Amino acid sequence: MRSRSGSGVRLDRILFLVEQTICEHQNAITALFANQKEFPGHAWVRDNVYIAQALWALYRAYMKCADFDEDLSKAKELGFTCVKMMQSILECMMLQADKVELFKNFQRPLDALHSKYSVNTKSTVCGDSEWGHMQMDATSLFLLTLAQITASGLQVVRNFDEVAFVQNLVYYIETGYRTPDFGIWERGDKTNQGIRELNATSIGMVKAALQALNDVGDLFVDGSRGSVIHVLPDEIEQCSAVLSSMLPRESFSKETDAALLTIISYPAFCVEDPDLVCKTRDTITSRLLGKYGCRRFLRDGYHTALEDRSRLYYNKSELQQFEDIESEWPLFLCYLILDAMYSKDDDAVEDYWRQLESVLVLSPEGFRLVPELYAVSKENVAAEKSSRGSQLRQPAGATPFLWAQSLYVICCLLYEGFLSPAELDPLSRRLSVYEKRPPCEVQVAILAESACVQKELRLNNIVVQRVDEIDPVFQILPASVLSQLLAKIGESEKLKLSGRPLDRQVGLLSTSRLYQIGSKFVIFTPQFMECRRSHLMYDIRILTDEWSSELQYIYASWNSVSISGRPLVVLVVTQSMLSTEGLSHFSNIPLNRHMKSTVIGAIKKISTGYLSGARVVMKNLSDFFRTTAVSKMEFRGGGVEEILGAVSEEKVTFNLHTGDNKDSRVGISVASPRVTLKRGDSVKDRSAYSMIHKASMRHRSIALDSNDSDLVQLRLAYKNRGRELESPLATVSNRTTPPRQLGLVREEPSQLRTLLNTVRKESSSESVSVVPVFSAKMNEMKADDLIDLLLDTTVLEEQTSIIHCLWMNFGPNYDTQLAEQSVTVRMLMEEVYAKACECREWALVRLTSGLLEKQLEELGKAVTHLLVRQKQITMGLPSKKEEVITCPKTNEELEEIMRRVYGNDPNAFTLSQEIVISLGSLVRTEPKLFVEMFRLRIGLIIQVLASELARLRNLSGADAADKLLTISPFELKSMLFSLLSGRLLEEYSDDGHVDAAKDTRTGIGSFRRQIEERKSLRKSTRSMAGNVGLTRDQEEEEESEVEEDDFQFGIWLRHRRIDGALNRVPNNFYASLWDTVHKMPHGLRINDTILHWGLTQEMTRKEIKFALEVEEALNQISEPEYRELVVEALWLLGRLEKIMLMDEPKIPRDRPLNVDAILQSANTIFVEHNKQLGTVVLDCCGGGKKCDGARGICKHLYDSAPAGEYGTSHYIIRAMMLAFT
């Protein structure tokens, strides 16, 4: 008889360990595992999946190292057991197929799959609301393991119904990057109060699962295409972007978490950036690693001696007592060993292995067990708090802890050399962090919509094919058709499952490949090319900007989503893209004359091979056939050709317009009666129309409240610098004086502004007395009179005014009976909206879109882009009605929010959506612009934009508001970019582009640099003009003129107003402020809001929840420049020890430190100092006159530089010295 080899004996010992410590807890019928004494019979999905991984690892080891046939039989048994386990978990989930269907449509917590099931029956063990079941990481871990096991040759999925269910699980988790859940520890927020959060571990595991299922191929392991799981690469890329913005942070309440080891290394391997992996690993080991393992997160009270076991949740004030005594989990030593093995760090492997061996518990039979955790006993709590790591800890919780015991088995197999790390990763996911592929060039095919377009392009030396000239094997369809096809994939009548929800958008990466459907190769145009999605695409500059940014996005992202082949983007050029007919003439920024050259110029740039840094190749469509990525879609039950035919026939006529049939582009459905409004002739009864137009203009406005203190402080109407803000009555009595605040869009300034300001402020009967006579006459006009006027005019502006009055007086559903047909006012407004879009009359577009309450399709995606990058949004206008959006919303929920905050303001309804969409685009392409900004207040941004227009064009406030409504969406986005980057709008050239050589800058530093640049420019200009021969006195005079010019410019006041409105703070501001609050026994008082010392007991130093508490206090300050001055003072308070060289500053012990008092003291010091110097301050505060600076602070202090001998910091520091000495 042959003797077994030494390795075989050692492998048998590991198998025996598994049988005695893990398999003894297995149910013989269901193959599920459970050993929690507190919850007998509860099988956790996560624990069971890790056990499956351990059994799978043993199976692979026996298959590799088999000495005899009996070893192969052991391998088969282990493989069968592993497969049965995975099938049982799948069956548990399939029993809740109805929940999957509900959750993928609504993402409600109570519809989530359960996180644990009965070990005996596979049914649920508790109610939907009795546990934190919504754990995206658990479901994703199962799918990741399913893909890895399948890739190794074991078949888990057995039939097409199971394939359909797995496909629906993909739809279930693919929104994980924007779905707050309870996380890996099942309780959400660290206070255990059931608050869901966006968790980095969940997002990472979702990304890993999607990538693995995309890479595994078919689930039947036989090459059949019917068992292929379809994953949209855009969802993978979204997860990557969110992870990059979050790591090494776990969530709002956890500044880091040891569970992040599961995503930066085994089993997920989902972070490709090696620097980010190292940063996350170092953060965990430096902040959480102890002698017995890692703490889960800071101030984790689970199983500590001070935890009140009688209740599940913690009081916020008690979290600080858990600091330094958190339980340590040996589980994470296993993860650190695996991470070191995959990183090939042998020294770290040995160190962590010795540490793990020292904390294992021996069973009575001599087996090595991994306990759940180690806790400090109650009598040792005080000593441990005084010196962390000095006290012995005792094992607690389940022993063995099945999750940790399974990982220990895997570590043993790798440490003993039975397996190599690569054999536990058949999909080679581990290589993504080490092997970087160069960006893949983007293939671009330009097609002309018609012969006219093709001819015009040819005149510009651009040769392209027409849509009807491409090879018949190709079929071009809009992206919306792909959404409908995906809704068919994953359908199962038996399980009552549908496919992918239709309301989910299809991303750009998904439309950048060929789809083989039956005998056709289908190409889907990018979704942003569909003009009918929103009016934004009628702005050609926005469209071409999308071309540039999206091609760059594909270029940078394609390789990271693991798609074989190159991307292909098909752009269809329509006649409207080349036409300059009807371009808006309202804007002062001369962009419209470049409209035609924009599209042609973009195509010429593409043809050169580079566009905005992206490598592109432009050829005919057929030339890319062999190199393009192809995805085959199969539909069970046949009917593929019928589906394509029906869908394509409907959609092509809907989207592809010809230049000859302009009426087809009007926004009235074909089935509705049509009354085409002509354009050209003006209304003849000018007096009647004048009344109508005035009534319409009265309601066309951004409803900026003249009593809004935010707006008052943001005014930059330089024409009226010397005047005080007028009261409503003063405005009525003196109609020739334009109001100081930003007003409404008006055509006749004197009379209408007076009327509207009065009516806006006073809704009672007193305001009726100032309403002009024409309002009463307007109310006497009948609908027939208005309809006659409508038929009399063919001017779009006049048509809009008349239909607007019909809307206001008779309602949108009033039947006008035009041409003896049923034509409602709403239908007429829809047609006006369509024509305004075609003519690019942006003021009319925004008015009609707001009245029709049109929600831009890009809004939901833009809100999500901002939120998942931890940027909250406030909709509405300051001092009126604001509503904060803190988590992703459905389109219906967003629509309700918009109605609540902008119900009576149609222009703001539309303009705010455009701003959010622009911000969502910029946060993807320019994330550095949003550093240290946590809440974006859209109302304040609108006011800043209007103020900047007033300053830039030297307009009154009312005219600036008027101008803001008429600028194009691209101009609006350009202004936003300039404000966020800290640039002056003057730096933008006429074509709307900033000098590419200048880097993007934000904050005070950018303004200081701009001042120096402008001084240098002035000096060089003067020298070129012949100032070389000036005397020294003349040079000094010139220099003083330059300084005076800069002083008059008001650059620092403007900067503080803009940064205050954007809620921007310096780097590391919140952590520094946490230190300050922690030093103050009674906290800080800011604007009558107290940041109490107790906040530091609840929240850690870099916790985002603390940052949001600070933002809540700062947002109570209505004057943005004062807010920014408060931020400067708080920043200096964080450097108190460095500023004041004394042992013990006199910190107030009986009251909060009053920051406002420090600023008032600084202002007093500033005024006295400047009185001695005889500066311009003598003209206001220094001379005893009242200054119009916010909060009684001299306006010249606001307009002072932050640093320097005469800077704000100098005076604030002097005030602090008085307060603390």
TrEMBL record:
Report domain GH15-like positions: 9-939
Its GO CC terms are:
phosphorylase kinase complex; plasma membrane
GO BP term (any one): glycogen metabolic process
Q: Which InterPro entries match?
A: 6-hairpin_glycosidase_sf (IPR008928), 6hp_glycosidase-like_sf (IPR012341), GH15-like (IPR011613), KPBA/B_C (IPR045583), PHK_A/B_su (IPR008734)
Note down the stretches annotated as region Disordered.
1018-1042
Its UniProt pathway annotation is: Glycan biosynthesis; glycogen metabolism
Q: Where is the Phosphorylase b kinase regulatory subunit alpha/beta C-terminal domain?
A: 1012-1162
The reply on keyword Membrane is: yes
Keywords annotated in UniProt: Calmodulin-binding, Carbohydrate metabolism, Cell membrane, Glycogen metabolism, Lipoprotein, Membrane, Phosphoprotein, Prenylation
Annotated protein name in UniProt: Phosphorylase b kinase regulatory subunit
